[in-house]
Amino acid sequence: MAKSVPLFINGEFRESKTSEWVDVTNPATNKVIARLPCSTPDEMQQAVDGALSAFKTWKEVAVPERARLMLRYQHLLKEHHDELATLLSKETGKIILDAKGDVWRGIEVVEQAANIASNMMGEVVENVATDIDTFSVIQPLGVCCGITPFNFPAMIPLWMFPIAIASGNTFILKPSEQVPLTSIRLAELFKEAGAPEGVLQIVHGRKSEVDFLLEHKDIQTISFVGSVSVAQYIYQQGTQHFKRVQAFAGAKNHMVVMPDANKEQVVSNLVGASVGAAGQRCMAISVAVFVGDSKAWIPDLKQAMSKVGPGAWDDDDAGYGPLISKPAKERVLRLIAEGKAQGAACELDGSECSVEGYPDGNWVGPTLFSNVSTDMSIYTEEIFGPVLVCIEVDTLQDAIDLVNRNPYGNGTSIFTANGGAARKYQHEIQVGQVGVNVPIPVPLPFFSFTGWRGSFYGDLHAYGKQAVRFYTETKTVTQRWFDDDIPTGPNMTIQLR
C-alpha cells in the first residue's frame, strides 16, 4: 500500500485521522506513489491555533536571529539540492535538469530572506515640527497562508514561507494535492535548521480545506499561484473575509521576433521557452509573433522542435517530462484538435506521442501551429502544454497592439538587434515582466515577480521588497520630549548591578 503523506502541525509530522484520501500518482506511469489526506476540520484548526500561538513569541525574536535561521536553512537546501530535485522529479515527472532549476530558484529566495534586516528598516524624519520627530517601523501581521500549485513544488512554496517567516510571521502551507512530497521534505529541512515549533504548519486537502483557510478569522494573508478561475475565486473569497490577498493567475506569454534578430538565438530560445517543463509554467512562451520577414524562420523552428521529445525524469536525452495528469493531457489534446478544426496549420503534431517503457504516461509531443488567428481557442486559452502558436504581423506596432489586447500580462519578450525597437517595446507593452533577447524574464528575488492585468489579482507581488511589504504593516510614531524634563545637577548617577 502506498505511504500516506503526513501533516506537519506544531513541529510534528503526524498521520491524519481523516477518512478522505487522494491518490498521488507518478505522471510518467500513473501509478499511485502516495496517499494524501484531506485534513479534518479539527486538524485545520490545530494548525491555525498553533501558528497563532507561535506568532506571539516568534514576532519578538530579533530580526538578525530570524535571518540566521534562513542562512542555516539555505545551507541545508544546498546540501540536499540533488536529493530534493530527485524527489521533485518523481512526483512531478520533470526531467532532472528542470527539477534542479526548480529547487535552485527556491534557494535563491531563501537567500534573499536571509537579507531580511535591510528590508525591515523603517524611516525617520527629525524635527517634523519643533522638537517633534516622526519615524516608522515595520511589523509582522500574524498568521499567513500559502496555497501552491503542482508545477513548481519547491520554488513556489519557497517564494512564500521563508520571507513571511523571516518578516516575523507564522505560516500555514497548503501544497497542491498532486505534488505534496517535496513540501514535506522542505519542512523536514526547515525543522532541522532550527525553526521553532509552530512557525510553519502544513495541511492538505482540496476545496473545502482551502475555504477553511480563506474564511478563518485568524489568518491575515493568502498567497496563491494557480489557474485563472481559481485565482479569481481565491481573491474574491479572501478579500470578502478581509484578508490581504496576492493571487497569481494564468498567462498567454508572447515572444516578438523582429527581422533583425539573430535567427539561431530566436529558434533555440523559442524551443526551450515553449516546450521546456512540458509547457507547464506560467512564464512559458506560448505565442511567437513574427514581424515582417521573420516569418520565413517558421520552417527552421519546426525542424528544431521536431528534434525535442519527452521522456522519463532520469533520461538524459529527454527534453521535458510528462504532463501532470490524465485530465491535463486530455485538455491539451482537446485544444490541439480544436486548433486544427478552426483552421490553424498544424506544422508539428504531438498528439500521438509515446515514450518507450512508459505506455501509461501523460505524454504530449512538441506541437507547432502557424496561420493562427486571435479568435482561435489555441490563442485565447492558456494551453499549459508543449504547444507553440505562431502569429504573423507586419510591424512592431502591430505586435505591441496584439500583445496589449490580450487579457493576460504575466511575461513577454522581444528578440531584436535594434535598441530603439527594444526601448519602444519595453516602454509601451502592458505586461509586468519583459525580456529583451531573454525568453523567460523571471526576475531574481531581490526584484519582485510582477505579473499584470489578468495574470495577477492583488497589489503587492511575490518575493523581493514587495513581498516583505505584503507580509508586514507599517506603524508610524510621532514623539515629543521636553527639555524641562531632562535631569540636571550632581545627583545624576548610574546604578550598576
From TrEMBL:
Keyword check for Heme: no
InterPro entries (UniProt xref): Ald_DH/histidinol_DH (IPR016161), Ald_DH_C (IPR016163), Ald_DH_CS_CYS (IPR016160), Ald_DH_N (IPR016162), Aldehyde_DH_dom (IPR015590), MeMal-semiAld_DH (IPR010061)
Aldehyde dehydrogenase domain segment(s): 14-477
EC number: 1.2.1.27
Domain of life assignment: Bacteria
GO biological process: L-valine catabolic process; thymine catabolic process
GO molecular function annotations of the record: methylmalonate-semialdehyde dehydrogenase (acylating, NAD) activity
Enzyme class: oxidoreductase
CDD domains the record matches: ALDH_F6_MMSDH
Keywords: NAD, Oxidoreductase
Family: Belongs to the aldehyde dehydrogenase family.
Protein name: methylmalonate-semialdehyde dehydrogenase (CoA acylating)
Organism: Vibrio paucivorans
Organism phylogeny: Bacteria, Pseudomonadati, Pseudomonadota, Gammaproteobacteria, Vibrionales
